[in-house]
Structures are given as structure tokens and as C-alpha cells.
Amino acid sequence: MGRRNSTHVSDFILMGLTDSEEIQLVLFTLFLLIYLITVLLNAGMMLIIHLDLQLHTPMYFFLSHLSFLDLSYSTVITPKTLQNLLTSTKYISYLNCFTQMNCFIFLGATECFLLSSMAYDRYVAICNPLHYPVVMSTRRCCSLVFGSYFIGFMGSFVNVLCMSRLDFCDSNIIHHFFCETPPILALSCTDTQDIEITISIFAGSTLVVSLITISVSYVSILSTILKITSTSGKRKAFSTCASHLLGVTIFYSTLVFTYLKPSKYYSLRKDQVASVFYTIVIPMLNPLLYSLQNKEVKKALIRVTQKGKSSKHKIRLKLNF
């Protein structure tokens, strides 16, 4: 078995998604385009929310943190994936691999509970609108965001404690395009049963608790919307949470497919496709979902643009004088 807390490998090899050079080139172009759009949209969303005072509300406070998490999420995974698609040597150091894995877990768990906080925010806005400013105070919003990050940190910390007990004696080949927990556990020459149970309990409870919170919130929201008599009132109430509901559905469906299905249904290829979707594609989709159908964001973009043009005009006038 070897000694605990020791390792015989200094780096790992990420096998990636395919061995075909033609497909790798196509994937590189596609992933690079997606990553650039992800950076532009999420950074743009954070900037607009910061600059426009009318967006300084609880919903957009949570949305700015979601954009930050998506940008970080994508940056942890995509650049290394792009590098490996272009090079024949697909090495990643032991330290970088475990750093990537734990950052991924931290950001993923944080996003789960941030989405739960956003669902709670929509519940208060629709089901208890008169008390919304009091319930969703600045202090409450900050507490919810801090709690999300803290739970994410605890998930990463548990993973660090578990993975530090592993020994790697023989193979260092990871059959994946990034350092994810299951493929790394498969490489260990240590008995991983207890570690797998511990990680599964924490990961499962994170998904289940956040899903229950979101489900209860939306059942209450749906019940309230059905009681509204006017069609326009129902449409307005539903439009305030439609983007979040769609984003949650996409995010959780891929996570549940990957992590909560029975082991007998495990398929490396299907898991890789799902992993591409929630690590590379979803960080691009979220800002699109929350901006394309959102009139407030569009108006804020116009206001910020006009303000920028006005500032430039004033500077030119001062320089002329």
C-alpha cells in the first residue's frame, strides 16, 4: 500500500477528450471562442452592475457574485484545457492538479448555495413583496453570500483532508481533461472506500440541501403566481424568476447526471461531455440567460454607455479650454 501522505509521482498526464489532432483543433477553436465570450459577458455583467446605481439591489448583488463564480470557474479549467489541446505533452504538476481540483470544488459548492440564495430572494420578492426591503436587507444579503462561500470552502477543505491521505504508486494517467476527484481516486494505490464515502456524503448533501431549498422556494412561488387573477400579473411575476429557474435547471441536471447516478451507469465519454457542459459552456450561458431577457440590464447598459460618452465629451471640452 505504501506509506500515507507520500507520493511516488510528481505530475499527472491529462489524456483529454480525444486523440485526433483534427478534432483537437476544432475543440481548441470552439473552447477558445466560448472562453472569450464567457470572460466578456461575465466581466461585463459585473461592471454594469457596479457602475449602474439602479442595479444595486439584492437580485443583482447575487447576480454579480454568480458572474464572478462563473468567470473563476471557467478560468480554473479552460486555459489548461486549451493548452493541452495544442501540445503533445499534457503534463500537469501534482500541486497544480490538486489546486485545480480544490478550486473547482470550492467554486461548484459555492455556486450551488448562491443559486439557493437567489431562489430565496425571488421567493421573498414574489410571495412577500411588501416586506422585501426589510427581509432582503444588505446585512441579510451579505450573510447569504458569505455563507455560500463558507460552505464552498468547507467542501474544498474536506476534499483536501481526504485526498492528502492518498498514495500514487504506479500510473499517473488521468482519463479526463481536468483534475476531477473520481479519476484521481481511481489512480490511487490506497484503499479509497472511506474517502469516497466521506466525499460522496458531503457532495450529495450539498446538492440535496441546495436543491430542496430551491424546490421549496419555487413551489411557493408557483402557488403564489397561480393565485394572481390577471394574466399580465402572472406574466410579470413569472418573468422575474424565469431566467433563474432555467439556469438552475441546466446547472443541476448536469451535476445530478454526473454525480448522483448509480455507478453501474458510469460512462467515461458521457461524463466528459457533461463535464464540458458545466465547466465550459454553462459559465457562458448564465450571463446570456440573465441579460438577454432582462430589460433592466439592457437599460443599464444604455445608461452606462451614454454616461461614458458624456464623460468623454466633458473631458474633450476641458482639454479644448
TrEMBL record:
<dbReference type="InterPro" id="IPR000276">
    <property type="entry name" value="GPCR_Rhodpsn"/>
</dbReference>
<feature type="transmembrane region" description="Helical">
    <location>
        <begin position="98"/>
        <end position="120"/>
    </location>
</feature>
<feature type="transmembrane region" description="Helical">
    <location>
        <begin position="201"/>
        <end position="225"/>
    </location>
</feature>
<comment type="function">
    <text>Putative odorant or sperm cell receptor.</text>
</comment>
<feature type="transmembrane region" description="Helical">
    <location>
        <begin position="25"/>
        <end position="48"/>
    </location>
</feature>
<dbReference type="InterPro" id="IPR000725">
    <property type="entry name" value="Olfact_rcpt"/>
</dbReference>
<keyword id="KW-0675">Receptor</keyword>
<protein>
    <recommendedName>
        <fullName>Olfactory receptor</fullName>
    </recommendedName>
</protein>
<dbReference type="GO" id="GO:0005886">
    <property type="term" value="C:plasma membrane"/>
</dbReference>
<feature type="transmembrane region" description="Helical">
    <location>
        <begin position="141"/>
        <end position="161"/>
    </location>
</feature>
<dbReference type="InterPro" id="IPR017452">
    <property type="entry name" value="GPCR_Rhodpsn_7TM"/>
</dbReference>
<keyword id="KW-0472">Membrane</keyword>
<keyword id="KW-1003">Cell membrane</keyword>
<keyword id="KW-0297">G-protein coupled receptor</keyword>
<dbReference type="Pfam" id="PF13853">
    <property type="entry name" value="7tm_4"/>
</dbReference>
<keyword id="KW-0807">Transducer</keyword>
<dbReference type="GO" id="GO:0004984">
    <property type="term" value="F:olfactory receptor activity"/>
</dbReference>
<dbReference type="GO" id="GO:0004930">
    <property type="term" value="F:G protein-coupled receptor activity"/>
</dbReference>
<keyword id="KW-0716">Sensory transduction</keyword>
<keyword id="KW-1133">Transmembrane helix</keyword>
<feature type="transmembrane region" description="Helical">
    <location>
        <begin position="272"/>
        <end position="292"/>
    </location>
</feature>
<feature type="transmembrane region" description="Helical">
    <location>
        <begin position="237"/>
        <end position="260"/>
    </location>
</feature>
<feature type="domain" description="G-protein coupled receptors family 1 profile">
    <location>
        <begin position="41"/>
        <end position="290"/>
    </location>
</feature>
<keyword id="KW-0812">Transmembrane</keyword>
<comment type="similarity">
    <text>Belongs to the G-protein coupled receptor 1 family.</text>
</comment>
<keyword id="KW-0552">Olfaction</keyword>
